[in-house]
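Sample entry as discussed:
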Amino acid sequence: MRRDLRLLPVAGATWGAALLGVFAPEAAPWVAGGGVLGAVIAVVLGSVRSSASGSGLSAVVLSAAAAASLAVCVALPARDAADAWDGRFVEATCEITSSASVGRDGRLWVDAELTGIGSPGDVRPASAPVRLGLDPGEGYDLGTAVRVRGEAASTDPGERGALVVFSSSATIERPAAGIFAVAAGARHEFIARSTRLPEPGAGLLPGLAVGDTRAVGAELNDDMRISGLSHLTAVSGANCAIVVGAAFWLVALCGGGRRLRVVLAALTLAGFVVLVTPEPSVVRAAVMAGAAMLSVLLGRPSAGTGLLALCASAILIVDPWLAATPGFALSVAASGALILLAPPLARGMARWMPQPLALAIGVPLSAQLVCAPIIALFAEQQSLVGVVANMIADPAAPIATVVGLLACLAAPLPFLADVLAASAWLPAAWIAATAEVTAELPLAQVPLVPGIGSSLLVAVLSAAAALLLVRPKERVALMRPVRWARAAAAVVIVDAVALGGAQVLLRGPLATATSPDGWAIAACDIGQGDALVVRSAGRTAMIDTGPDPGLLGDCLRSLGIERVDLLVLTHFDLDHVGGVDAVQGRVDRVLHGPSDAPDDVRLLQRLAAGGAHLVDAASGLEGMLGDASWRVLWPQRGSSAFPAGNDSSVVVEFGGGGVPRSLFLGDLSAESQRMLQRTAHLGSDMTVVKVAHHGSADQEAGLYEALRPAVAVISVGEGNDYGHPRAEILAILQAVGAHVLRTDQRGRILIGMKDGAVEVWTERSVGGPG
């Protein structure tokens, strides 16, 4: 079937102009002016030459590029005004524009629109998109007005938010109202009803039905990622397509005509968007998937490509910063897959199964096959079981989504809502079980270096899967676009096998061969978080576990560590305790900071169940690690000056027995650092200091001036959203003569002593290979 591709250049020009504008804003006025001038010239030439068709398309292409660039120009002054608060402690008023999600740091993250910003007590009107990091709590629904105080950090070019605010306090000034409040109430009631059901499936059901993944446990979340099923719990184009298809089919079943089917399907999709929160990503997915799915259901796929291009162009003109987000690229790709790939997949699978089931599987499977190469551009692992897992789980996804939505809407009738939720639980449990089983298969995922090579490899595998499923006579059309890639694919596959073999050897039998023998302190490269190791005379201590058990496990294997004699959990933020599973059952003693949350208590109970002895850490506690001594300097015993959290981080000092005199500062702020300096009698000439809070700006210069460390270690994630380490602390460390070692630049860092001198080994050097 011939497809109308005339609007694809319009989408391409709009996307290109938007990308150029957000990454090089100074070029936006020139592109806008040039586009308008070019469009006028095209129209004039078309009227003179009487060739309206080609000139008209050129004028539309240039006008679309000019519109995207003009949108950038209009938005820049407000964004620049917000960015001027970078690195300062601010007070801001905002209106939340998205649903809340839990980040790896344990915070609730929401998108918001600024209504005012300034120094505390001096808030002035402002308008710009921002990202808020909030302490966990209830009531942060779309449409809620909040007032926050916290540290502001600018974002990288291309990011949709102009500013990130890491809130230290937040108050709700006006709760969500109107239809948003009704939708939020229905969602919360459905989530509470779902989580009363048994696992597996209970925590997954809200994600499948309304896109709320806060109840999904860490283990199941990892299994969903490994098995390639994570897209089912996000409000994506697949969810929207399922809703449109279900409404269209139900109206047809009741005898409704084509026009009525389209109208009611569109109204159903609009209601679904309101229910799951009409944040930009959801609206984007709904527009894309709605257009694509309706073109398929109406039997007009030839018009679907043009409609998709038109929708993409309109969205980018409204918000050009979406051009740089992976989510937008994935939405366009998934929607294009619904138009181009889902029909032949469904026809091919209909040879072995009923047509409705084939379509139900073909829709999400086509999106998964097309999106996988895009994900490979930035993901560090690739699932080898994704296609199989999706084929097993996809038939259950439409049932869980539709029945779960009905349960959500039936909240005023508790009995009916309970019955529907229980009915939706079964397919949700099926999906959860599929994820758990397939994630445990050998080589369920393989590490791949993100980039073009990995993307080409995944594209070849996805194309092969698609060709196996479609009918033979349709394979010819699908094969033509990939013939040119055969030679490159062979090279990529050989490289991938070689890289994979090297990874297996270096992570397994040859793991310890990558580490020298003389180290005493190690800082693991685990991203944005802390995970440090101290060893002396065959005994090992660990200070925090980072956010990811997998990354921590890799580090410990490379260091040859099988057991941890002393585990220090400075505090219970996710970036400090999220990797505990990597040492579960292998810890003798745990020193921990104050715990005041049920999750903290459960984590400690798990460690105790694995044989660890739990000790509340407080100043004055001391002991031996092999031939080295250690002592706790903070928090003060019996003090309630600071609540549980950063300022009550356990601070511990090690020294002797081959271990350089070293101090680990947790996430202390400047205020608690000042109190530590007054009470702990630290002295000077500390050899190694683990810089507090990953190098945030909230530091006490006097403490570092007093310690005068020879080496300052900053455990920090590459390209983190916080802007860590901040220029302020780097200037302080430079002033005291410390040699700064950062895990984002150096990878894993090892420190030792030889003949009284400090030795340092790093995985890589700054600006060159390690």
Summary: Residues 8-81 form one domain. The radius of gyration is 28 Å. The first strand starts at residue 89 and ends at 96. The chain has a mean pLDDT of 80.
